[in-house]
Amino acid sequence: MEANIPAGEPAVQALIRQWFTLFQMRIGSNPATLSKIRLAYKQEPALLIGPLGHR
Question: Would you say the pTM of this structure is higher than 0.70?
Fold first, then answer.
């Protein structure tokens, strides 16, 4: 995002797929769980901040 590379670029799409695969490996793919995580991010935006304080 900081590099202003369009989301539709193949390299960005590959990174998104890789991230989502890792996310699903860790969290699972249960729709109820994913919904709870989305709600938590919406209610607590600080959860989106990385361990070094980066978004």
Answer: no
Sequence spans of domains, the chain: 10-48
Kindly report, residue by residue over 29-45, the tens digit of the pLDDT: 899 999 999 999 999 98
CA–CA dist 42, 18 (Å, integer): 23
The full DSSP string for 1-51 is -TT---TTSHHHHHHHHHHHHHHHHHH---HHHHHHHHHHHHH-GGGGS-T
The one-letter amino acid at 31: P
- Token pair 């989301």 is at which residue? 7
